[in-house]
Amino acid sequence: MHGFGRRFVRQFSGNYGWMKIAMPSVAAMSFQLSLLKKADSTKEASKSLPQPALDDKQRSKMVKAAEPMLAKPEEEAPQRYANVIASDSDFEITEHYYPKVLNAETHPMVTNFLHLSIKRIVERYCHLHPTVDRDVLLKILKQPPSHLRWSGADLFVTTTSSGNRKLTVIETNTCPSGQKSMPRSDIKLQEGFGYKQLIGSTFKPMLKNIPPELYSGALAVVYDKNKMEASGYAHAMADIFRENVYLVEFYNDDKDPPVKFDDDGVMLIRTDPDKWIKVRAAFRYVTQNPWDRIPMRTKTEILNPMIACISGGRNKNLAAKAYGKLNADLKHSGIQLNTPKTFTDVPFQAIPFAISSLGGVGVIKSPYGNAGVDVFTITDDQELEDFMQNFGKEGANMGRGYGDKFIVQSLIGNANWSSDFGSGKFYHVGTVPNSKGNIFVADIRMMIQWDGTKWSPCVVYSRRSKEPLPQELDPSMPSFDILGTNLSVKIGENKWGTDTHRLLVMDTRDFNKLGIGLDDLIDGFVQTVLATIAIDNMAKVFMGEDPSNVGVGVEFGKTSDIEYRNFDFEQFANLNPDKDILADIARCNGYEYHAH
Fold it and tell me: N or C: less crowded end of the chain, CB within 10 Å?
């Protein structure tokens, strides 16, 4: 228990009411309440639909790809230490970019998009959306964040039978990958441009909030995944600050991790046996349940802080509620954050009822997974039965079984087998047909950053599904192979590979396969900023702001004004009544929590 946690110990019960503001309508709220009345709040052990199948040759490639990236902690592994990235070390592009990117030329349209001013983006967007309030949109794109300063959204390009085309946000991430997948000019690649852009304009300004007692502290990058990019950020940091930077592994199952926090919330890293040094600021690429080992309140500045994760950046349940709240705030502006129809806080036993309300097809998500883990597409009764019988079963490698509440969303498929959103069926636009006439599902990852004066796009790339999108479903084909776009392949605990042959980068060859244009990129950027602001606003609620005052245009003051306010665990528990994450947060922060 951390000292600052002990000073604010409170007792909480695990039985909390359901948060209504997230639902898209009164009818949906009523449905949600009926779920809770009809369903037992406990769940049976179960397991997911299978992830995309790999043959032995593919799995061998994934294992080989993962081994140099991350080493799985062994039960009796030797003690880990921070690795030093020297200030004069060379930035080796082969270690921080995919081979596909090294010889790629950025598509001119993407280059043009990345250099558009906010004013031009607003003018173009409002020209195509004449009901949008121009002043509100401009204010949104210049609204400074308090917590979530760097994010990435995954979006689908969707349409209806009547041609209502739009980009739909599927999820938002607080540790988004992307730099290794972004083509740049040869000079920019050699300089590590994208990495330095984020460290210089987003991370560096945070250091003005460091308390005097940490001025002599070190700089660090902590990670549990994606060493390729984590080390790239460490090299960029060492070059910008002209000092040594520490690169530190921080796994959720490490019995003796090289990272810890003292009673005041200061991060300490182990550099030698029994030697720990203080960290004044850290870049975080810790993705797997990071709230079980990183406190809510820290004196060490962290990009991004943990409050951003639990408020929606790695919590799909609260993200859906945050999106609903923002749309309610913006209802008179003509601006809307596009998301699938979503039911939140769904108990396990109520999932079939939720799926049936969407026409028998939908997407089930355990809210706390990432990289495609704990996401299950349901297109027929057999897939639903498999999920209900097998989710979370030990040894099955089919879902972690973490969390006792789920979200259920409408499924975006083909025109003949998508869920009904209420306003019609939205289906995938997909890629341009290949030589065989096949169209694949493809997403757009849009990474954005706060650069001190405005939100800016910094990375764009795409990923396609393993199998083509059929007009009619084949029951023998797992639907996730058709609809899933994540490239990460989980081989073991803290061990990942990447299926890079499905990566589509923004170069002169791949971009033309996507069938998108400049207006789609602008729309994706606006949607990503909206999603990020929604989550940042939710984080402010938990850090002491009056919920009735949280919204677009409200001045919250400097981040330092709210940084050390108490995390409102009770409010969080009310809005996210899930015993697993509550128990982890309580244990890490020194709260008392008793689940029923």
Answer: C
Q: Judge contact between 309 and 286, C-beta under 8 A.
A: no
Check whether the bond before 244 is cis (ω within 30° of 0): no
Contacts of 405 (CB under 8 A, 6+ apart): 317, 344, 345, 346, 347, 367, 577, 578
The pairing of beta strand 301-303 with beta strand 275-285? parallel
Let me know: does 167 contact 156? Beta carbons within 8 Å: yes
Residue 407 CA to chain centroid, in angstroms? 15
Nearest to 514 by CA among 437, 436, 460, 462: 462
Angle subtended at Cα 422 by Cα 417 and Cα 424, rounded to the nearest 5 degrees:
55
- Greatest CA separation found in the chain? 66
Place of tokens 């969080």: 572
What's the first-to-final CA gap in the chain, in angstroms? 22
pTM value is: 0.85
Burial class (CB in 10 A: 0-12, 13-18, 19+), 64: exposed
What is the CA 167 to chain-centroid distance, rounded?
17
Enumerate residues 6+ apart whose C-beta is below 8 A from 368. 289, 314, 315, 316, 374, 402, 403, 580, 581
CA torsion, ordered 44, 252, 155, 418, to nearest 10 deg:
-10
133-145 average pLDDT score: 97
d(CA 173, CA 316): 10
Cα(183)–Cα(233) distance, integer angstroms: 17
| Tokens (6 digits) for 227 | 């060493």
Beta-carbon contacts of 211 under 8 Å, excluding residues fewer than 6 positions away, are: 299
Residues 6+ positions from 130 with CB-CB distance below 8 Å: none
CA dihedral for 498, 463, 181, 154, sign (positive or negative): negative
Condensed to tens digits (0 to 9), the pLDDT of residues 13-43 reads: 333 333 333 444 434 444 454 444 444 443 4
Contact 181, 503 (CB under 8 A): yes
Q: What is the pLDDT of residues 309-325, one digit of tens each?
A: 999 999 999 999 999 99
Count CA within 13 A, CB hemisphere, residue 453: 3
Backbone angles phi, psi at 69, to 5 degrees: -85, -45
Residue written as token pair 């409170």: 10
8 A C-beta contact, residue 442 and residue 435: no
